Amino acid sequence: MWRSSLSFSSTRKLLSSSSSSSSAHRSFYSVAARPLQSLSESSSSRSVAAPPSHPNPSVSATSGVGLIGRANGVRRFASSSPAAVTAIATAFDVSSLASSRARDAVDLARHYGRCYWELSKARLSLLVVATSGTGFVLGSGSVVDIPGLCWTCGGTMMVAAAANSLNQVFEINNDAKMKRTRQRPLPSGRISVPHAVAWASSVGVVGTTLLAYKTNALAAGFAASNLILYAFVYTPLKQIHPVNTWVGAIVGAIPPLLGWVAASGEISLNSMILPAALYFWQIPHFMALAHLCRNDYAAGGFKMLSLGDAFGQRTSLVALRNCLYLVPLGYLAYDWGLASEWFCLESTLLTLAISATAFSFYRDRTMQKARRMFHASLLYLPVFMSGLLFHRVSDDHQDLSESNSLEYNELSSSLETPLEEDSFSSRKEIASRTQARPPVAYASYAPFPFLPAPSYAGPH
């Protein structure tokens, strides 16, 4: 018993002496030796308060010698390795600093990414990209150049982002006065004006250059001119005269023409169908928005037609008139060889539907009717573009029908036989070769299964 107590008391003395031997290693000893010291003290208290569990004193002596050896190891490491202790502490500091910097970098990237997204008006820019991509597909014929389509959409997205960013730079004071725009990056102070200008300039130059090198110079010229027209003509005109709505409609009509030119390299008559639809569609769309946000536009200092039209009579009339201008576009698309006759019918029905909402707004000029016309305008554009893509007639189909007719004429003129039966049989054989494919169920061609299936008639 005395030997065991002596052993544990010597252990405590050694631990206490190792803790007081060097003040430079006190922090390391507090981390490394404190659990061992508490273990030895608890063991010593248990040995003094209670009799040993083993009658043989050698067991206690052995455990005391083991604890003394561990304490001596800790003391020797703490007293003989100051460089190791410093290295471990430095490693901990470097790792914590690196993790802190990584978190700061992620937060900074997330902050500026959100600012760039809002500066670019990403949803509006994606709509511009959709119209440009539709124009590219319509101008491609039967074979669509997928890499060219991607380059066109990417360049259009960059130019649209640059135009929208410059628009917010010029309207920072106006946006700060409006309820729906005061939380944008510039009025809220989340990003500086020079930073926004640098962002807009860089993406605008890169997008225009991309279109020039990957498509053609004419498409790049349309992109650059649209950027200038939107940022430096339409934007200041919003604070001067209500004619800004019609100038903005021209800006919205250029992207589908840009896509067509990027695919075909030229401007044709049927390439104006989709730009015309975009132009006339934007007028009722903006008139509904101007009527709904009339007070907000007045607070921001924007000169809209609805500000001088308290009862909405002129605003609703302009919206109705431009909806009616959309009616003949389906027939023109069919007549000019851009789409099939079924698109003519579908486009007419769709245009009459949006015209009905405009007429309802004209008769009852309430916020509810204006909101209904606004929602109808949001639905009209994607349905119109989808139908135009679905029913488009490629140039190859037209060339094939023309070549078949020429082949028929050549063969019929070359078959000069004295017998009428041989002549009749040869013409019948040629007609069977040039006959169109058999009828197909109309359900695979349009979303109107109640209409009759189209008939395919061969040449007579």
Automatic annotation (TrEMBL):
Residues 42-51 have a biased composition (Low complexity). It is a multi-pass membrane protein. It is found in: Mitochondrion membrane. It comes from the Eukaryota. GO terms for cellular component: membrane; mitochondrion. GO terms for molecular function: protoheme IX farnesyltransferase activity. The keyword Lipid biosynthesis does not apply. The chain crosses the membrane at residues 124-143, 149-170, 191-211, 217-234, 246-263, 340-362, 374-393. GO terms for biological process: heme A biosynthetic process. Pfam families: UbiA. InterPro entries: Protohaem_IX_farnesylTrfase, Protohaem_IX_farnesylTrfase_mt, UbiA_prenyltransferase, UbiA_sf. Its main location: mitochondrion. Residues 1-25, 42-63, 413-436 are annotated as: Disordered. Signal peptide: none annotated. Keywords: Heme biosynthesis, Membrane, Mitochondrion, Transferase, Transit peptide, Transmembrane, Transmembrane helix. The keyword Transferase applies. PANTHER family: PROTOHEME IX FARNESYLTRANSFERASE, MITOCHONDRIAL. This is Heme O synthase. It comes from Rhodamnia argentea.
